[in-house]
Design goal:
2 copies of one chain form a homodimer. Chain A is built from 6 helices and 10 strands. Chain A has 225 residues and is α+β, with helices and mostly antiparallel strands. In chain A, strands 1, 2, 3, 4, 5, 6 and 7 form a 7-stranded mixed sheet that branches. The structure holds a DNA duplex (30 and 30 nucleotides).
DNA sequence: CTAATAAGTGTAAAACTAACAATTATAATT
DNA sequence: AATTATAATTGTTAGTTTTACACTTATTAG
């Protein structure tokens, strides 16, 4: 070990994940009702400790994968929570990420094993430690980013109707939008492409399915909703 | 120590500061030409290790104070950089903050002692480790935040002219603005208050000095420039 | 064939943004 | 005392974007 670093304090470092999903027209979080210590029985975010030979971003991916079985998930760092007493057990510095997942794709067995549940944003139970603050900051960050980057599509299936897309953004921002104005705006974004496919799940008439074309987006990456 | 945490890896945790200042119509960073190991002689951000009994936010404040002598400085966490090899000496996880300081108020002796220098944003020398990425992210975050929160005033003296204010925002966003449009917008923000004081530093005629009234802002916190 | 339902569509007023140049107040110079 | 130089201050118009608002269409279940 280099002389220089020798007598510096070292810290436990954890990652915590705010896992967003979109289902039944509502934004939801995947939360644990902890079936393990510490704080067994209480509600918390999914988390885990960083490991010796692992980039922190990879720790977050690993922890998310442990719960959902998913890879290649959109994740974004929210920030780091480093107050001395944030974990009453011992000092732990936590790096927080939010994840956007397609709610049909996760591994139900794993989720059951961890005793995790999807909870609507407005029905979040009391959470341990500073997890409520983490959720608040993650939501605010996600709301802001979703307005100028096309990250919302990570919450939708590959093909989606315009009604689904609008409902998603209404859920994210917790406010209704005008249907005609919304569709006018979408029509200006040529990376949101109409397909020939029609979804008849929600109407007799059926609705055209659209897809997000990332290649087209990258040519002229402007987005706002 | 709690049984639960026992065999977890522990990490060195550092903070690094991107210190913004505004001087001579330009945005600048306070950077170290390191007169200490490691990487002595090279340019870097001001940084330091987190201590055992210290919130991470307070570590950042302490490190900033060690260099500038300043307290009560506006600081914002940019994010945490946790790749295994980001510090070639040994693994160090770094929590990055940006700070906005009034460029007349810092302690010149301390700054000299650390061999720190103000560098224009477009003349930043090569920096060690992942510090260039940190600077890039800090600048982007600060630019975005400065557009919707009144943080720019932290870079100005308590009394400032509209020309100064405009030049500041032009420096932050690296783009010219129209003087009349800028002033029209400022006129709509009643928390930017005209005083009776006049500054004759830059013109024979003199320019009215304005101040930012945070109390008024808090009543109706909307800002965009 | 009727009823029910979600999908799909256009227009006009209002608000905001962007582009543009002359006048004013003052101090230094002649 | 008059002239000059300089930054500060001030409005208008055209263009663009945003908002508000309601009917028609396609389809299937009954």
């Amino acid at each position: 070990m280099n002389q220089y670093y020798k007598k510096r304090a070292k810290f436990h470092v954890a990652v915590d994940c705010i896992i967003f999903g979109f289902d039944e027209g509502e934004l939801k979080l995947l939360l644990l009702q902890r079936n393990f210590q510490p704080a067994k029985g209480q509600w918390s975010l999914m988390g885990g400790f960083a490991e010796e030979e692992e980039n922190i971003d990879d720790s977050a991916k690993r922890v998310l994968n442990e719960l959902t079985g998913l890879d290649n998930v959109y994740m974004k760092q929210v920030g780091t929570f480093g107050n001395i007493d944030r974990d009453p057990g011992e000092r732990v510095i936590s790096v927080v990420y939010y994840a956007l997942i397609k709610i049909n794709e996760y591994d139900r067995e794993l989720v059951n094993k961890h005793n995790a549940h999807w909870v609507k944003m407005d029905e979040i139970p009391p959470l341990i430690f500073d997890h409520p603050l983490m959720v608040k900051q993650a939501l605010e960050l996600m709301q802001r980013q979703s307005s100028y980057e096309p990250i919302g599509f990570n919450l939708l299936p590959p093909l989606f109707t315009l009604t689904q897309l609008q409902t998603l953004y209404e859920a994210i921002n917790a406010e209704k939008m005008d249907k005609r104005n919304f569709r006018k705006k979408v029509a200006t974004m040529d990376f949101i492409e109409k397909t020939e496919n029609i979804d008849k799940t929600n109407s007799r008439r059926g609705a055209y399915l659209y897809k997000f074309n990332n290649k087209v987006y990258k040519k002229d990456p402007k987005f706002n909703l």
